[in-house]
Design brief:
mainly alpha, 8 helices, 6% strand
Length: 142
């Protein structure tokens, strides 16, 4: 295989990887439902926030607003677009630190709006995961 053929093959593999990652973003809604995630953002060009009915029913009105604002915080910080670019350009890069930072950034968006205690309460109602409980403690501190 010559140099130009190797470049073409590499480009084809990269394009296939990019298409695969875009399809994962577009299928986020189905994956989130299967995983039992209660609230999430879906879509790239026309993103929308989805909050599952069982989550809405379990929370007060202010807690629901805080959950919606947290998801909007992900939109505000362009987390979906950033994650997609990273997934396409650096296909083997996985970072728990990036995910953690993005969750805390979205929490900060809620805290700045004055609904930190409501999001903390919602996190405690919806999850017993140690990271969610830590986020609730951080939100309580203001």
């Amino acid at each position: 295989m010559g140099f130009s053929e190797a470049i073409i093959t590499l480009a084809a593999v990269w394009i296939a990887w990019a298409v695969f990652n875009i399809s994962l973003v577009l299928m986020t809604e189905r994956r989130a439902k299967l995983a039992g995630v209660g609230a999430y953002v879906v879509g790239i060009w026309r993103p929308r926030i989805v909050v599952m009915p069982e989550v809405r029913d379990a929370l007060s009105a202010r807690e629901n607003i805080a959950v919606w604002m947290h998801e909007y915080g992900h939109l505000h910080h362009r987390h979906i677009q950033k994650n997609l670019v990273i997934a396409i350009l650096l296909p083997f890069y996985r970072s728990r630190a990036r995910v953690t930072r993005q969750e805390l950034e979205a929490d900060g968006y809620v805290r700045e709006a004055g609904l930190g205690p409501e999001l903390a309460s919602a996190l405690r109602k919806l999850s017993s995961h140690p990271f969610d409980l830590l986020r609730a403690q951080l939100l309580d501190r203001g």
